[in-house]
Amino acid sequence: MHLYQNQELKIYNSLSGEKEVFSPIHEGNVGMYVCGPTVYSNVHLGNCRTFISFDLVFRYLKHLGYKVRYVRNITDVGHIEDDADEGEDKIAKKARLEKLEPMEIVQQYSVDFHQIMELFNTLPPSIEPTATGHIIEQIETIKQILYNGFAYESNGSVYFDVVKFNENNHYGKLSGRNIDDMLANTRELSGQTEKRNPQDFALWKKAEPQHIMRWPSPWGDGFPGWHLECTSMSTKYLGNHFDIHGGGMDLKFPHHECEIAQNEACTGETPVNYWMHANMLTLNGKKMSKSTGNNILPREIFSGNNDKLSKSFSPVVTRFFMLQAHYRSILDFSNDAIIAAEKGFNRLMEAIEVLKEIKPSGSSSLNIAEWRQLCYDAMNDDFNSPILIAQLFEAVRYINLLKDGKETITQNDLELLSNTLNAFIFDVLGLKDEAADDDNNNKLEGVVNMLIGMRNEARANKDFALSDQIRDQLKVLGIELKDSKEGTTFSIQ
Ligand code: AMP
Ligand code: ZN
Fold it and tell me: Where among 278, 300, 334 does a domain terminate?
């Protein structure tokens, strides 16, 4: 028996504009695709919010007992400045400015992204495909769309024919747009474009001679359009029709609208059952963004090295700050708001510690089974983490009364309370008890120092076999000893 069999999860579907009961295509299995970062600079906190929002979704689905295949791509080619069809590739531009290879840029910022995601305690996706690793698949998708008559070649590039597609399909159904309005609202000087219509978008772009990121194709050397990678990679790993597709709200149009059009033009199938869009993190009321510079970097928060901050905040506190808002609400970042989040987080962690010391005593004054279901109800209601957190604080209040001997609890309820709190705080919300981590670090430091002392003794007794053994075995564990005049210190890799 899995939890999902007796919990009814509802997801807000951007396509219908309604909360719908979640029912996966294959019972017990969920396929989820989330648009990943374009790796041409450090991820800012806004980007992180979107990935943390989907980490919550991934964690809760797993908690309910689903087997989830979570695909999140890395965009390493094809994303043009201003999300346009003309202009410089974001990665190629950065490479030019830094005098590096594009793939050096990709590597540098992919590594940074992974480090930040790990610090935020997000679980790695099941598959993390890159656009450059799927050029062949993208060419195949284009061939099929051309064959089906929904694209045309023009001067070595291939464009999606939006008007043709719209004859029997609806381009604009996700973003609530209408092609005639879009065409009426775009002015473009005729004769200056390779496109039949300004709304058409690139599937393949011809590479100019100076363009480094290029691949051979039936239409000459070029590179894929930005929207295409997600169509090719989602269907490759999740099938033509899968359960959930997510991304930030700003990707709804044109990116996701174009993805739907490409999928439908290629396979004739509606690709996604539930479209999920995470809302934006703002700073001073404006969207955090790489291009405008209105952003804050995660490492600036962890170090406190930013004028907007009065102190540093740990990754887990920052994560908690974000989870205190529902993923579909706009959240504004400020020093005061994250200070308040830190206080709340500390209260939660203290209660977890207090709970370990509580002994059962008489009957329970809080109905724990009912309270537990309220926690599930919150998450079942479109992953409502702020309501869940409010429920967790109900438990904190109870725990503090138990501590003061003002309330009582049975043995069974004590176990249920503890298990439920641990499951929601650590597994579902993905928080970490930093005090416990610090405590373990202190213990580790004590043990290594004890071994250093034993090694010194062995050396004094000329038992070099033992002293070397201690050093070598610690090294195998990733703990390196360094001897100097002042004594021996250690570092942990
Ligand atoms: P990008 O690297 O620009 O393609 O963005 C990666 C992800 O971050 C996308 O899903 C965006 O929607 C998301 N994103 C960008 N800016 C913000 C923001 N201010 N708040 C939340 N998510 C954002
Ligand atoms: Zn995408």
Answer: 278
Domain boundaries, position 304: 282-428
Indicate the number of domains in the chain: 3
Report residues whose beta carbon is within 6 angstroms of any ligand 1 atom.
35, 37-38, 46-47, 49-50, 247-248, 250-251, 280-281, 287-289
Q: Are residues 327 and 295 in the same domain?
A: yes
Angle between helices 335-357 and 411-422 (to 10 degrees): 150
Ion ligand 2 nearby residues (CB, 5 A): 35, 230
DSSP 279: P
Q: Residue 327 CA to chain centroid, in angstroms?
A: 12
- The residue among 52, 99, 24 whose CA lies nearest residue 319 is 52
Q: Which of 126, 134, 130 is nearest to 232 (CA)?
A: 134
Pocket test for ligand 1, best of 45, 48, 50 (most atoms within 8 A of CB): 50
Is-above-0.70 flag for pTM? yes
In this predicted model, what pLDDT tens digit does every residue of 90-135 receive, in sequence order? Answer: 999 999 999 999 999 999 999 999 999 999 999 999 999 999 999 9
